[in-house]
Amino acid sequence: MLIAARRRIRAAIGIEHDPVLAWQAERNKGTLRGARANIDIRKQDAARADFDEGTIFWMYNPFGERTMSAVLDRLRLSLRTNPRDILIVYAHPRLSRQVDQQPWLQRVGERRFPTAGENGHAIYWSSKPIRAVS
């Protein structure tokens, strides 16, 4: 989120359910220099979050299968109410098969970061907007 905030984007929004990690994110936000975007840290459950504004979703193996399923469902529903292209970047993708099984997503890339060890791996998925059925 902090790296994204250095780009020319409208906002970088972080969602964190754990109060300690949310506090650390707020603290890190306060020390960031060179931010070009607004940073908003939302202390909430990602399975209940509003994703309607997002276009790029970055995850670092954030949760288990049940929560991942709920987040993917919310993203899909978000595309129905607010059609747009999205990109999901999933680093250290332990649940990549679960994401691959989504018919509304297409795997578009993969990257390894050799200096980051076994966790230095990311997979990218994209989606075209899902149009609401009239």
Strand order of the largest sheet: 3-4-6-5
Mean pLDDT across the residues is 89
Helical stretch count?
3
Shape: globular
Report the sheet with the most strands, covering strand number, pairing sense and barrel closure: 4 strands, mixed
CATH class of the largest domain: Alpha Beta
Assigned CATH architecture of the largest domain: 2-Layer Sandwich
* Rg from Cα: 15 Å
Your description of this structure?
The protein has helices at 19-31, 65-81, 96-100, and strands at residues 11-15, 38-42, 56-60, 86-91, 106-112, 121-127. The protein has 134 residues and is an alpha/beta fold. It folds into two domains: 1-44, no CATH class; 45-134, Translation Initiation Factor IF3, CATH 3.30.110. It has a four-stranded mixed sheet. A two-stranded parallel ribbon has the order 1-2. The radius of gyration is 15 Å and the shape is globular.
